Amino acid sequence: xxxxxxxxxxxxxxxxxxxxxxxxxxxxxxxxxxxxxxxxxxxxxxxxxxxxxxxxxxxxxxxxxxxxxxxxxxxxxxxxxxxxxxxxxxxxxxxxxxxxxxxxxxxxxxxxxxxxxxxxxxxxxxxxxxxxxxxxxxxxxxxxxxxxxxxxxxxxxxxxxxxxxxxxxxxxxxxxxxxxxxxxxxxxxxxxxxxxxxxxxxxxxxxxxxxxxxxxxxxxxxxxxxxxxxxxxxxxxxxxxxxxxxxxxxxxxxxxxxxxxxxxxxxxxxxxxxxxxxxxxxxx
Length: 284
Ligand code: C2E
Ligand code: MG
Ligand code: MG
Ligand code: MG
Fold this sequence. Notes:
It is a single chain. The protein contains 12 helices and 10 strands. By secondary structure, the chain is of the alpha/beta class. The chain has an 8-stranded mixed β-barrel, surrounded by 6 helices. The termini are far apart. Ligand C2E binds next to strand 2, helix 2 and strand 6.
């Protein structure tokens, strides 16, 4: 480190670039067989009603423990799975697995589980069918399953996507628009699209209440969404100030590390049981 020259930092840069490429190809390679090797697992992160503090559901988040690479973050492998097309089969697995878990949980608690769905699962036209199959196979109430989509699904073919969303909602499966505030965040979506929930992105929530402009925007988005009958979820709530502010601003639902981190099904179940016997946790 004492002799750091521009030459060695150039080499360092090349090496890290090489590492990245090498990483990417080994992730792609390992990803191809991950489903067969049963390396995926779903974790569940609770969502609470901010008025009552009651748990209303949880988001299913995909976890991958690779035999060769160890834990790989979804932020890393989902884009690669999308590029390679394997997101189709992985997405089917997520829906089936979440439906099975929803069936087990709903015997004990009246909850929904929400699955994240990527653009690909819209373009191959099987989404509604896959949801219906999973609901039927597990004798689920359709209300026990939600999907979370991002604005990116509207980019290529908004007409087709809207049609699919209408079909999905006719099944009784509710739809959340995820990561609101990161993309175009056209407020027009709220009016035109068939959605039940809007999830304020974590980046938005992070600045509450210190950044006055951001906070004013969040306030306006909450008011508009509520006026349109769309319920608002604040994601990434990490502290009591954010929690209290969102609650007072009329945000309906909260999710974040303050409430709980994503956890495996058995842990989620004991978390629910503890919370039920000890009363709600967030107020302390
Ligand atoms: P997302 O759907 O917006 O999920 C929220 C992410 O924020 C999760 O990261 C969650 O662990 C994290 N998070 C929740 N609360 C907090 C908090 O208070 N603070 C902080 N710092 N982070 C928090 P995760 O699990 O790494 O997932 C990242 C993204 O990967 C997800 O963003 C989603 O877009 C995608 N993803 C995850 N599972 C699936 C899946 O099954 N299918 C698809 N297509 N995408 C998925
Ligand atoms: Mg999500
Ligand atoms: Mg999100
Ligand atoms: Mg996100």
